[in-house]
Amino acid sequence: MTNCCYPKDLKELRSQVLENKHILVSGAQTSTVIPFSRQDSMDHCLGDSKHICLQSMAPSIKIEGSIASIAGAVSWKELRAAASQFDLDVPFWPTDQSAFVISGIATSATGERSFHYGHLRDYIDSLSVMNHKGEVEVFYGSDSFEKIFDNEELDKLGSYNKKLKAYDSFKNPPFPIFENPLELFIGTEGQLGIIVGCELRLVPKKDSVHILYPIAEWEKSEQIIDYSLKARDCREYILSTEFFDRHCLDLVEETPLRKLDHIAFEVIEDSLAEFICDMDLEEDFITIVSEDQFSKIRVNIPRAINEYLSHNQMTKKGTDVQVTPEQFSDLISKYRDLTKHGISYILFGHLGDQHLHFNFLVTNDNEKKCQKLLSEFYQEIRALKISPFAEHGIGLLKQEYMTEYYTKEVKDFFMILKNKLDPNNKFFPQGYMSV
Question: Which of 123, 265, 301, 434 has the smallest number of Cβ neighbours within 10 A?
């Protein structure tokens, strides 16, 4: 990658912050915030920005009680391994556990288990952040905004938060949640400062089982809707509820799940019998797999999709929409409409949260048609008060769909944040706060 550096400690990172006019930060070259797969496009977007990759920062994990203190390039897999020594676990993690914890916080990557545990932000006690002066500041959830903003700016924050009320039930609204100063850095993609450490609350480790269950094709059956809603009534013992259609499963080698749509549940082991009864599952169709087996399938799905696209000189364009349970039937209906245009597609995602990713598999011949269909789709759903991008950061790829969600109140507060915390527009100047 051009114009990239890999600092190994805070001293080297501080030097880069002070020396460069514009900076874009990533944890590793796996981010959806930065289109690594499109090098020419990315270089054009970044312009004169220095890309700082934190994957070489010295890792550190310390666990006291149920609090994990993390610094540097610590992966979710490494954090889970450390927590397991104390019979603890991480509430959730992204699909690929080799991703870094700090990157997950910066992009608000909630993962599958948010279905049971809630939002990542609820488990963060503090963040250590390097500011535009190269100084490390520590922010706590108990901090007050009065320490940062004057009365006029606090009024602007109040107007901003009023816009968020309609999105209280979603994992990530169209624009970030700012209920305390800690949250200025969760999901804002490094646009206000670089997260270099955190304190994260762990949870007691629960013995669980992973269940794979086939259902009828989602385009023709209401089962996908019925099981999604049933799972919500059982979330006290269901840790996650995921969906994969047959099209994406067909691309994965060494899996018994081809040719059928599947739901994958993670269930607390002691509640397995109750789960089967409450969900009204047919035991003959249940497949139980280990966590390692499920993780392999889960990680291999996006990898297999990307390999297929690369081999066939295709790209994917899709959605990241979360709706309320009451709106889920309407969302599925709109996704069904998108399947009727003769373009290859896949559907997968967090079924229990009514948060599914519909993706067109795009060729040069149908790229404009796909773009038009998705633009029309986002226009249709805009009035529904849904979360258009519920997974994590907006990055460089999703901005064209986001600007219409930004009212004057939202833009005004983004400007206040940048002027207050990044007055020289040093951090990720191409990010959504500058749109």
Answer: 434
**What pTM, to 2 d.p., does this model score?**
0.91
- Residue 354 forms beta bridges with which residues? none
Shortest CA distance to 299 belongs to which of 68, 33, 35, 75? 75
pLDDT of amino acid 45: 61
Domain spans in the chain, listed from the N-terminal domain onward: 4-204, 208-384
26-47 per-position pLDDT tens digit: 886 555 566 555 555 556 566 7
Residue pair 16/5 in contact (Cβ under 8 Å)? The answer is: yes
d(CA 394, CA 108): 10
Q: Which two tokens stand for residue 16?
A: 């880069």
Contacts of 56 (CB under 8 A, 6+ apart): 6, 7, 8, 73
Rounded to 5°, the CA angle 265-266-272 comes to 90
| Joined tokens for residue 222 | 């209401």
User: pLDDT tens, 60-77?
Assistant: 999 999 999 999 999 999
Q: What is the pLDDT of residue 397?
A: 66
Average pLDDT over residues 401-419: 88
Tens of pLDDT, residues 190-224:
999 999 999 999 999 999 999 999 999 999 999 99
CATH no., domain 208-384: 3.40.462.40
Calculate the alpha carbon distances from 262 to 224, 228, 359 in Å.
Answer: 9, 12, 17
Helix (H), strand (E) at residue 409? helix 408-421
| Integer angstrom CA distances of residue 354 from 30, 170, 351, 384 | 25, 10, 5, 14
Give the whole-angstrom CA distance, residue 315 versus residue 280: 39
CATH dotted code for 4-204? 3.30.465.10
Structure-token match 């948060």, residue found: 355
